[in-house]
Design goal:
Chain lengths: 560, 1070
């Protein structure tokens, strides 16, 4: 009996002593060299921040397919081919099923948010030298991502602390999602204090992708937020500052494509200044502001180029007609239909994989712009080679022409339709601003010009109109491309806005902006038909059904 | 800071209190028991008069007396020896005692007096197996009759052609462990399942304890060689094994590691100071597998031209694919290239052989006993160039320093080198598979332009099939591994009853693998999203370092000859550090560039560094009253680095979560009671019952903590992203098992055991969706449950006991019914080799999930009447036509899609086990072992490829029955290039009854009558394996296990089958 008692006593003693000695944290601690625990990763070194930002770039790769497909296939310019897979057809018809891989990836968006949150919060603790730039970069990416979530899915669950445990994830998941109207002021508040922080100096290059163009400029995102929330002067100011600080220009002799004229007649040839408009998408182009670099190496799933190669995605007849129906203006006596930006956007032939490293050159018989259903923009952006080694693919998010068009949209609504029109037609420069025939005095006082309208700096002297890159000397055109005499300024503004909307289609087709652009215009005008009509125009058999569906604003969003 | 510390101490204190309360409950039970036994003890003390028992020991056959038989009671307090007439007299305390009778050349027997004071004991010769041997329990070696839990042992490991312990288990304990042979290569071993399926996604394999040390079985380590599993048990030479025990319940001492059952392997040790040398040698011959009946040359030509018509290509396009139709001998190179009738199996198979030698020495003196062995095994496997070589050595010693201190020493070393080839269904790197699908009209060699056979190997042919023979010659597939373990077991004897020992072991497993897939002789592979792979090189190095320590206090005492107590209390620590590094690159350009340089195509590096630590505090008490009533209590308290800190099933102590795993087992030897006096025919009867909780800690490392992972960006830069969220509730899986058993012997001749078990596993590791805001997709959580109910029975009949001729027949049967009882989302699917397995509530684990078929449409009108159709990827519909399969459409919407899938098979058998026969005639012995499995379904994946009729792979002759003309009634659909209608999809066409009865092994041995001082004994033996198999299975071998995971049981992926093999061996003792 006593023995047993003692035995148990000693058992318990050993258990306790054993546990004290052994069970304490250290004994069962394990660490791995392949995974990093939060303790080991706390942004105390600049190296940590480089790993972290590259980690975020890698997460951005996960949403490029859905960014483009949700942005374009739901718009009026991109269409599905009959052999497209069912999921693409679902997106095209606004009947997205819950397992649609291009739309059921909302967690990929939040992965960007969560990783940004982690870096931002750790940076705030460690405050290593230069951390502000990384924090600002993360905040811009997070804000852009939140915009995508809210605009694609209708609402977003906002949180700014990192989720590192399942219980935290569950708690945050239970928060009330907020709509774009509620979200935008939060994001604006976040970005305003850091809008002058520069992006980190990241001047190394991998596979011809420069990391400088991986960052999202705070001012662009902030400008977009102002534009969406109707704060047009503020938006214009952000866009203008970004243009000014970076000397972004739309230059003569860069990416311009003209018809060859011989003896005052079109000879059928094409002059490609600076490689022509299609070269704007080639590696290292000066047009780039932000792009997401991805790859199909290392098991990475990037499908967009395969979808294009298989021609499951094609351009809509609407998109092709947009280019075909523009007036190319050479002179008062010489003009013809057809915007030359059609070359480089679409083609008659399916892009093929070629073995040369220089990509496929897709010139055509330029007299004939019929049946150009295949999209070639991605082929221009992403060289098609059989040797995929060292191949990076990119998707454009922000570029210079888009920035100018957004600026035009902002100043137009800020009450400067003629100046906005000048962005398209003449190019913003000192001479344009001072030319009262282009911009009347009552609209812009070129002497006491407010900063957000001031393009008188010498760096803009050679700016041309965006439209001149494909439609010849539109600046000389006094017949076709003019603001008609309209009764009210509001009419002029809406006219110019339509032109901007059209220019976006001509210039930035298939790049992923379209549906959101149409949403913004429709919401601004409080006219759902603006979007519904445009999108329905692409459809043939179920035109009415699509239009009816899109007359209801809830149907603009993917159901989570 | 101070406050924080105080708080910690306080909370630790609280935790301790809870712990003490819990332990207190256990202690109370023990104390109660003890008080009760103390009281009864006093009673017996009072009548301490001895009773005289007389008896006689006779031979069971001749009925003649057995002289010099030793009789003793179980406490060894009283003993006697029979005289010439077999009579003995013994003084005992009680007429309810049990006597142990041992005699030379006879089996051990235990006889209960049952109140008699006069008895006759019949002994059976030791050619018969006996029930009363000792078994290894978790608290040491015990008499089988004194064990309350369900344990089976095989300890007559002799004259065996088995290479590994798991093969032995399959031979001997087939009804107790369900073992499914992995493949026919040397030492591949088996996937083992004890009492059904006890885990879905965590480790489902039993715990291996070798000489007291837990082995890391590396069950989830993958090899670069496809179809190969590096079996950790092949490190042990079967000649070194003393015994293997299978523990099916009462294993709670191993707490969170024991829910899949425990297999204890004991290696041999020195038992007497006499020096003994044992030499054994074995040579064998392994036949090459017979293939499927494939189509012959002309049959293939017809098939291929048929298929061509469906491909919708222009006949005149000049593609090389049509060269086989070349009918013009004036183009001799092409003409003769396609005019062969090659048996491609000859290009890949060879007859294998086995050579194995082992020498061991035992001996010592009164201070030290040792066992030393050296072994070599060199096998040639049945696929050309594949081989196995092993060198192994073992040194076990037991040192006695003085009365108080002893020391055990175990050193084991093995080195294995294998030459392998990828195996299974794989047209890109498995030469055996290439030989099956290769067109017979081709030749391994090229033809010259003059139409003569050249010496140069032909490259990948126009049907996109490689050249298996040339592939083998140009490929490199090496696997080398070695294992070293050094163990010490010091023991301090504090008092005669109390001792302290610690088993410390350090072990190192290392393996290096190299694989080179040659160019030209295999098809070019398109890697999705990457590009074309012409060939590849892979390399993998793996290292596991284990540190093990098991320290315990042992207390053994008998009070008043009545109460036997053995108790232990211990602490166990297991640490494993696993590291693996893998490198891959593609497109070397030439076949002599076989080293990795790091900048070729698709260069990929990955690896693992996992450290796992676990601690267990355990206690166990075995109590035995009068040697008739037994009760065992055991409990372990486990923590592991894999568990979270806030587990539901455990309690918190010092910042860690601990699980408690108690068990209780009780048994009663009813046959020793005096009321059984009249039931003479019942020689032995034991009833058992037990309940225990065990766990499974075979879950993923690091999964409970938040961590970040490296991400390659554009293949050059490294990024870090959040990869896992902290999940503090992650824990072990819990299995609660109830066991009822009965062991009995009738007329001393028929021994049977029967165990019925009910086990419920909860906290099953299952995958669940994460909240999407976290940015991650899925996580592992302990939310599933399933049950396994079943039984195991064994029967042993001493059928004939004549003077020279003895015959013993045995049989075992195992049965379980597995059912998933709870899952967070009700069900999920797992894709398994183009098929699917469903895990759903109400179904057994691993159920095949696919389409049911109802034959083939003979006529177009039939098909039109049925109106079945499929939806294409672009949303359009295509209707089934004549010659297509008729798929069952349970939802009746005429659309054949995912929603029409049903459970089409169950890989779990209804019954499995073995049937054995042992015949001895004079000095000859003939042992036969049949194994069987009944009621299990097999997914014949390789047949699904060989009868798909969708490409230019050669097909089995079943394809000669394919639908060919309107109105033809057949069971094989038409062949159609690419199979657009999915006729060959995963359906019950490929699910077959995998029941079988196999003559697993038969051995004839002969003992040389030697009277020599030099040689003590000499045995010769011959044996054969797999001589025949009765089965309806259409594949080669119905025993198939594609991987250790439970989802892959019963999937025949075309791995090398077990084939007939013949052995001859000799064994002599010096």
């Amino acid at each position: 009996m006593r023995v047993m008692k003692n035995l148990f006593k000693s058992f318990i003693t050993i258990l306790i002593v054993g546990s004290l000695v052994t069970g304490c944290d250290k004994m069962l601690d394990v660490n791995s060299e392949r995974v990093v625990s939060p303790d080991e990763y706390n942004m105390t070194a600049t190296n940590d921040s480089i790993y972290s930002i590259i980690g975020i770039f890698s997460q951005l790769q996960n949403i490029v397919d859905s960014y483009v497909l949700l942005g374009e296939l739901r718009g009026d310019l991109m269409d599905v081919d009959s052999k497209a897979n069912l999921y693409l057809k679902e997106i095209n018809n606004f009947e997205v099923s819950p397992d649609n891989p291009y739309a059921a990836n909302i967690h990929d968006y939040y992965s960007i948010v969560n990783n940004c949150n982690y870096i931002i919060s750790k940076n705030a603790e460690s405050k290593y030298e230069g951390f502000e730039k990384f924090t600002a970069a993360c905040k811009a990416i997070r804000a852009w991502t939140y915009m995508q979530i809210a605009l694609n899915f209708g609402s977003a669950v906002y949180y700014d602390e990192p989720i590192l445990s399942i219980s935290k994830a569950e708690a945050i998941q239970n928060r009330q999602p907020i709509g774009f109207d509620e979200l935008a002021p939060i994001l604006i508040n976040e970005l305003t204090p850091i809008k002058d922080v520069l992006t980190p100096d990241f001047d190394f290059v991998i596979n011809s992708h420069t990391f400088n163009t991986s960052f999202f400029p705070v001012k662009f995102v902030l400008g977009d937020l102002y534009l969406w929330t109707g704060q047009y002067q503020k938006a214009a100011q952000e866009y203008k500052d970004l243009i000014y600080n970076n000397s972004y220009t739309i230059l003569n002799n860069r990416y311009e494509t003209n018809r060859t004229v011989t003896n005052n007649a079109f000879s059928g040839g094409i002059t490609l200044y600076g490689g022509g408009w299609l070269n704007l998408f080639s590696a290292g182009s000066a047009e780039y502001i932000t792009n997401i670099a991805t790859t199909n190496e290392y098991d990475y799933k990037f499908q967009l180029d395969s979808l294009m190669l298989n021609a499951e995605l094609v351009s809509s007849e609407v998109a092709q007609n947009n280019w075909r129906n523009q007036m190319y203006y050479q002179s008062a006596t010489l003009d013809t239909l057809g915007d030359l930006r059609i070359i480089g956007s679409v083609s008659k032939q399916k892009p093929e994989r070629t073995t040369s490293g220089s990509g496929t050159v897709l010139y055509h018989n330029l007299k004939d712009f019929s049946d150009m259903k295949y999209i070639t923009k991605y082929a221009q952006m992403n060289f098609l080679t059989t040797s995929v080694k060292n191949t990076s693919k990119i998707i454009m998010i922000y570029r210079v022409a888009l920035l100018y068009l957004r600026y035009a949209e902002a100043i137009n609504r800020a009450g400067n339709p003629n100046m906005a029109f000048a962005v398209l037609k003449y190019g913003l420069s000192k001479t344009t601003l001072e030319n009262k025939a282009y911009i009347p005095y009552y609209e812009v006082d070129s002497v006491n010009i407010p900063d957000y309208l001031n393009f008188k700096d010498r760096r803009f002297d050679n700016n041309i109109g965006i439209r001149m890159r494909g439609c010849g000397n539109v600046n000389l055109d006094t017949t076709y491309y003019i603001i008609p005499k309209l009764t009210t300024k509001q009419d002029s503004i809406e006219f110019v806005e339509d032109k901007i909307q059209q220019e976006l289609a001509l210039e930035t087709a298939f790049e992923g902006n379209r549906f959101q652009d149409l949403m913004r215009f429709a919401i601004r005008r409080n006219d759902n038909a603006y979007l519904a009509d445009k999108v329905a125009s692409k459809h043939t058999a179920n035109k009415e059904a699509i239009r009816n569906k899109l007359m209801t604003r809830e149907n603009w969003y993917i159901r989570k | 800071m101070h406050q924080k510390m105080n708080k910690n101490i306080k909370s630790a204190d609280m935790d301790c209190k809870i712990l003490i309360r819990k332990l207190g409950r256990m202690a109370a039970i023990a104390v109660l028991l003890f008080t009760w036994s103390g009281m009864t003890a006093q009673n017996t003390l009072n009548n301490k008069s001895l009773i005289t028992v007389k008896g006689m020991v006779i031979d069971s056959h001749t009925k003649k007396p057995v002289a010099a038989a030793q009789i003793s009671d179980l406490e060894n307090k009283a003993s006697a020896v029979t005289d010439d007439k077999g009579n003995f007299t013994i003084q005992l305390l009680s007429l309810n005692s049990i006597l142990k009778v041992v005699a030379y050349d006879y089996s051990l027997s235990e006889v209960a007096l049952r109140g008699r004071d006069n008895l006759t004991v019949e002994l059976f010769p030791n050619q018969f197996s006996d029930y009363f041997h000792n078994v290894n329990t978790l608290s040491g070696e015990k008499r089988n009759s004194a064990v309350s839990s369900s344990i089976k042992i095989t300890d007559k490991i002799d004259k065996s052609n088995a290479m590994t312990a798991d093969e032995l288990l399959q031979y001997e304990l087939a009804g107790d462990v369900r073992g499914i042979t992995r493949s026919g290569i040397s030492g591949a071993g088996a996937s083992l399942f004890i009492r059904g399926i006890n885990s879905l996604n965590a480790n489902a394999q039993p715990l291996f304890i070798v000489d007291g040390v837990i082995w890391n079985s590396l069950y989830d380590a993958t090899s670069v060689h496809q179809g190969f599993f590096s079996n950790t048990l092949d490190n042990i030479d079967v000649n070194d094994i003393e015994s293997i025990s299978v523990l099916k319940d009462g294993t709670s001492v191993y707490g969170s590691k024991a829910s899949n059952g425990v297999i204890i392997i004991k290696t041999k040790r020195g038992t007497s100071p006499v020096t003994k040398i044992n030499v054994s040698a074995l040579a064998g011959y392994v036949t090459s597998p017979s293939g499927f009946p494939m189509m012959k040359g002309d049959e293939f030509r017809v098939y291929a031209s048929d298929l061509l018509k469906t491909q919708g290509v222009d006949w005149n396009s000049g593609s090389s694919r049509f060269q086989f139709l070349e009918a013009d001998p004036s183009n001799p190179m092409i003409y003769y290239m396609y005019r062969n009738n090659t048996d491609w199996s000859k290009e890949v198979y060879q007859n294998g052989n086995v050579n194995s030698y082992n020498i061991n020495v035992t001996g010592g003196d009164d201070k030290a006993l040792y066992y030393f062995s050296l072994g070599y095994t060199g096998n040639k496997d049945v696929v050309r160039t594949t081989s196995f070589q092993r060198i192994n050595s073992r040194f076990n010693a037991d040192l006695t320093f003085n009365k108080y201190i002893q020391m055990g020493l175990n050193v084991g070393f093995s080195r294995i080198e294998r030459s392998l080839l990828d195996d299974g269904v794989n047209r890109y790197s498995s030469p055996v598979w290439m030989s099956k699908i290769k067109s017979p009209i081709l030749n391994p060699y090229n033809y010259t332009t003059a139409g003569e056979l050249a010496k140069e190997y032909a490259r990948t042919d126009s049907f996109d099939v490689g050249n298996p023979g040339a592939y083998i010659l140009n490929s490199i597939n090496k696997h080398k591994k070695f294992r070293l373990n050094i163990g010490f077991k010091p023991k301090v004897i504090i008092t005669p009853e109390l001792s302290f020992s610690t088993m410390f072991d350090y072990n190192l497993d290392k393996s290096v693998e190299r694989r080179f897939v040659p160019l030209f002789y295999k098809p070019v592979r398109i890697i999705p999203n990457l590009g074309l792979s012409y060939n590849e090189i892979n390399s993998q190095a793996m290292r596991n370092t284990g540190v093990f320590d098991d320290s315990k206090l042992t207390y053994i005492k008998t009070f008043n000859n009545t109460h036997h107590i053995s108790a232990m209390l211990g602490w166990r620590f297991v640490s494993n550090y696993y590291e693996s590094d893998y490198i891959e690159e593609h497109n070397t350009g030439q076949n002599n560039n076989t080293t990795i340089i790091g900048n070729r195509d698709f260069f990929k590096v990955k690896g693992l560094n996992n450290r796992t630590k676990s601690i267990s505090n355990y206690a166990g008490i075995d109590y035995n009253l009068h040697n008739r009533y037994f009760i065992s209590l055991a409990a372990a308290m486990d923590a592991s680095s894999r568990f979270g800190n806030e587990t539901k099933g455990g309690f918190n102590l010092l910042g860690k979560s601990w699980g408690i795993f108690p068990s209780v087992n009780a048994s009663w030897i009813a046959s020793a009671e005096s009321f059984m006096k009249s039931l003479d025919f019942i020689s032995f009867l034991k009833l058992k019952a037990g309940y225990g909780v065990t766990g499974n800690d075979g879950i993923l490392d690091n999964d409970a903590m938040a961590y970040f992972a490296y991400m390659r960006f554009l293949g050059k830069a490294n990024g870090i992203v959040i990869a896992n969220l902290e999940n503090p509730t992650l824990q072990w899986e819990t299995t609660r098992r109830t066991n009822f058993g009965i062991d009995f012997t009738l007329f001393d001749r028929l021994t049977a055991t029967f165990d019925y078990f009910m086990s419920n596993t909860s906290d099953l590791l299952v995958i669940k969706d994460l909240p999407y805001v976290s940015g991650l997709n899925k996580y592992w959580t302990n939310e599933g449950a399933m049950k396994n109910n079943g039984f195991e029975a064994s029967l042993n009949w001493r059928a004939l006991n004549l003077k020279n001729f003895k015959w013993e027949i045995g049989a075992t049967v195992g049965h379980y019914k597995n059912e998933i009882t709870s899952l967070p989302n009700g069900q999920y699917l797992t894709s398994v080799y183009d098929g699917e397995v469903i895990t759903a509530v109400g179904n057994p684990a691993g159920s095949f999930w696919g389409y049911k078929t109802k034959g083939v449409f003979a006529k177009q009108t039939d098909a039109e009447a049925a109106g079945l159709r499929i939806q294409n990827i672009d949303g359009t519909f295509t209707y089934f036509g004549a010659g297509d399969m008729i798929f069952d459409d349970p939802d009746g919407n005429k659309l054949i899609n995912e929603l029409d899938k049903q459970v089409i098979g169950n890989p779990n058998p209804d019954y499995y086990g073995n049937i054995t026969s042992k015949i001895s005639y004079k000095r000859f012995a003939l042992n036969t072992i049949f194994t069987y499995s009944y009621g299990n379904d097999v997914y014949n994946y390789q047949r699904s490829k060989l009868e798909a009729g969708s490409d230019f792979s050669n097909q089995t002759s079943a394809m000669l029955r394919r639908w060919f003309f309107e109105g033809q009634k057949t069971d094989v659909p038409k062949s159609y290039y690419g199979d657009p209608m999915g006729n060959a999809r995963f359906s019950d066409r490929w699910i077959e009854d995998g029941s079988y009865l196999k003559l697993k092994t038969i051995t004839l041995s002969y003992e040389l009558p030697l009277k020599s001082d030099f040689i003590e004994g000499m045995h010769f033996w011959i044996s054969a394996n797999n001589l025949f198999t009765f089965t309806n299975y259409l594949g080669i071998d119905p025993e198939s296990s594609a991987m250790n995971s439970i989802y892959y049981q019963g999937v025949d992926t075309g791995l090398i089958p077990s084939t007939k093999s013949y052995y001859a061996g000799v064994k002599f003792n010096l």
